[in-house]
Amino acid sequence: MLDMGMTIGGLQVAGQESFAVMNPATGEVIGSVANASLDELDRAVSAAKAAYPAWSALPYAERQKTLNALADAMEARAGELAELLTRENGKPLAGIGSHFELGGAVAWTRYTAALEMPVKVLQDNEEGRVELHRKSLGVVGSILPWNWPVIIAIWHIMPALLAGNTVVVKPSPFTPLSTMLAVQIMNQILPAGVLNVVTSDDQGASIGAAMAQHPDIRKIVFTGSTATGEKVMQGAATTMKRLTLELGGNDAGIVLPDVDPKAIAEGLFWGAFINTGQTCAAMKRVYVHEDVHDAVVAELVNVAKNMPMGNGMDEGVLMGPLTTPFQHEKVARLVESAAQVGTVQLGGKSGEGQFHETTIVTDLPDDHPLVTEEQFGPAVPVMRYRDIEDALERANASDAGLGGSIWTNDMDKAKSLALRMEAGSVWINKHGALQPNAPFGGVKKSGIGVEFGDEGLMENTDIQVILQ
Ligand code: NAD
């Protein structure tokens, strides 16, 4: 069993207390990690604050070089990190699983390292010169969810460091191990205090809440549920922290009547069931034109019924368990209720432990909780529509606005419909594919701000204008 300490000021800190981490595929306890006190959080923030002046004073190109070294170091230990990730999160090693996540983390780091942050000259004439500078903030606090614990940590950490900030990261209590190991690996390269990790079981004092309120943290980047995001925003108000909030989604996919059901079935499947459905930008509701509805459902069921689910360490497995007992309970409850009203086309039952069968339900009313709530698991509702205007209205009838998708061979129509979707990203003939050069974030209650690309990097800075 692993016994992991926090990394504070470059040192391993065991903490006064600890808590257990479980393998969701087997129920085994696989690790024990430190349960931080508020004092230990303060120590981590102080270490980051102390490291800030030297780190932010480095030439930008030096930090770019350091990020590339971090990518190399993670790449060298990607196999070990991936196995740990599978054991604590449940996602398979293969397919769109742990190796994929580690590959993405390395690629994202390298892409971020190449971003530039030039001074922008807004005016330069006989009346004067106006320059827009980007300044680092200080200590950035990163709060992570459990669904993609390594790559989301990288999304938070890398642009923050590149811009000249130092970081305190807090992983989810369900999946702290892979993030802690990644931070340890990076600390072999980074100066002490530049990157720290604190862990908490969320049972006592909420370390996340204390981070949101902490006077020496200048920005919070938070990925998690909308309910917790609201608390972070409230907690951050008195210190006027900068915020990037990546919150929950209830993404709709709209399938037009001209599609070839067989050709899109695999794309639809992975759009909805990536990471066993536990992905913010997974397709959580599908609206299919009545002309192709039955054929699309049949092809989707065909793909889904052959997708092997099991312990992610086993060869050939492509779907895993729910990562947390709460999430398992939620999916089971939503599916059980949906089965009483709609038609279960596949699955419908809870499996052993934290497993749940891959489930496809049709004929549900729009106000059923499997349609209106974020299920975050291996269950998707497919709804019928006749008129595209009606489909669009139903797709937009949600507080969430993270992603959306249009499935058709008519690109002009796809683009005009995409522009009318209330979502931060809209994909055409795919869903949920993130890339490091495309800013990603939600509208409505799915969040504030974006990550990735120049726009994401700039969220780790304040603007200073020099006018002469
Ligand atoms: P969560 O909100 O339960 O927890 C997220 C983090 O917040 C954890 O580290 C938790 O310990 C911490 N936390 C708990 N209470 C807190 C408080 N009062 N103040 C500050 N932090 C606190 O979310 P989760 O269940 O870990 O993740 C699943 C959710 O995350 C889903 O809703 C999903 O859509 C969302 N998500 C969004 C994105 C995105 O980019 N938009 C990406 C991944 C996941």
UniProtKB/TrEMBL annotation:
Aldehyde dehydrogenase domain location is 16-465
User: What InterPro entries does its record include?
Assistant: Ald_DH/histidinol_DH, Ald_DH_C, Ald_DH_CS_CYS, Ald_DH_CS_GLU, Ald_DH_N, Aldehyde_DH_dom, LUC3-like
Membrane spanning stretches? none
> Where's the active site on this chain?
246
Listed A to Z, the keywords are: Oxidoreductase
Leader sequence residues: none
Gene Ontology terms, MF aspect? oxidoreductase activity, acting on the aldehyde or oxo group of donors, NAD or NADP as acceptor
Q: Which family does it belong to?
A: Belongs to the aldehyde dehydrogenase family.
Descriptive protein name: Acyl-CoA reductase
